[in-house]
Design goal:
The protein contains seven helices and seven strands; from the N terminus they run αβββαβααβαββαα. The protein is an alpha+beta fold and 259 residues long. The structure holds 5-O-phosphono-L-ribulose. Keywords: Metal-binding, Zinc. It is an enzyme of class 5 (isomerase).
């Protein structure tokens, strides 16, 4: 039985696809604006959410960048729509093929249902750490806030099949980090949506650079686990306009590590 074409999906799905393509196009421009990518390197995808109350499903779709297209040429209509097995919905993006990392993104969506966005970059400092195969130790409050601890390293994996996705998922199962440095390759980040994953990519490069600079001068001082937990809880629950008055946040009892 031939795979359904986008035209055969409901109007609600097609409207959600249109919105997701616009979001993913805008966020690719953010990777370039923050200088996290050069030429065609890197990619962004987002799960297509039709009913936020329905939760993720195996028949979800996701939108991802076409392979090898420069960032200034990306348009919503060039974004490729794929199924959760990574296959392309044929009547989308004309003859453009999806990113070479599509299988990796699809694997993450299938195995981490809470994830709604995936980003991959080759940002300089984070990729340098990936070349060393060395995790970035949690020595900055920004790392505790956003990553809840060290930024881990994932295994070396060839591109094009489930290997990278499997490495990302297996690494993140033992870490609450939203970033993983795939060895010899570069950072992959995840989030509840693509914007959260792009934020994680921006902050991953920022802390990779800062910790590298600190290590040129001396030995950065690790933050203890209890303080990492307190910083992570505050940032994830109160920071910005998301929570109650940040000046009145009750610190959780010491050592109450959530993981
Ligand atoms: O990391 C790699 C290749 O090593 C790819 O993600 C990167 O070049 C972008 O490829 P796509 O243009 O998304 O196919």
């Amino acid at each position: 039985m031939p795979a359904p074409r986008l035209a055969e999906y409901s109007e609600a799905v097609r409207d959600a696809v249109t919105h997701t393509r616009e979001v993913v196009t805008t966020l690719h421009a953010e990777l370039a604006r923050y200088e996290l990518v050069v030429w065609t390197a890197g990619n962004v995808s987002q799960r297509v959410v039709v009913d936020p109350n329905a939760g993720p499903g195996d028949d979800d779709l996701f939108v991802i960048k076409p392979s090898g297209i420069c960032y200034n040429e990306l348009r919503p209509e060039s974004m490729v729509v794929c199924r959760m097995d990574g296959t392309k919905i044929d009547d989308t993006a004309d003859g453009l093929q999806p990113s070479s990392d599509t299988a990796a993104h699809a694997y993450v969506y299938r195995h981490l249902p809470e994830i709604g966005g995936v980003v991959h970059t080759h940002s300089t400092y984070a990729t340098a750490w990936a070349a060393l195969g060395e995790p970035i130790e949690c020595v900055l409050t920004m790392m505790a806030d956003e990553f809840g601890g060290d930024i881990p390293v994932g295994p070396f994996a060839l591109i094009g099949d489930d290997s990278i996705g499997r490495g990302i998922v297996e690494t993140l199962r033992t870490s609450r980090s939203r970033a993983v440095l795939m060895r010899n390759h570069g950072p992959f980040t995840v989030g509840t949506d693509a914007r959260a994953a792009v934020k994680a990519a921006v902050l991953c490069e920022e802390v990779a650079r800062t910790v590298h600079i600190a290590r040129q001068v001396g030995d950065p001082i690790p933050i203890d686990t209890g303080h990492i937990d307190q910083l992570y809880e505050r940032y994830q629950n109160v920071y910005g306009q998301a929570g109650p008055d940040p000046t009145k946040f009750e610190q959780p009892p010491r050592g109450s590590h959530p993981g």
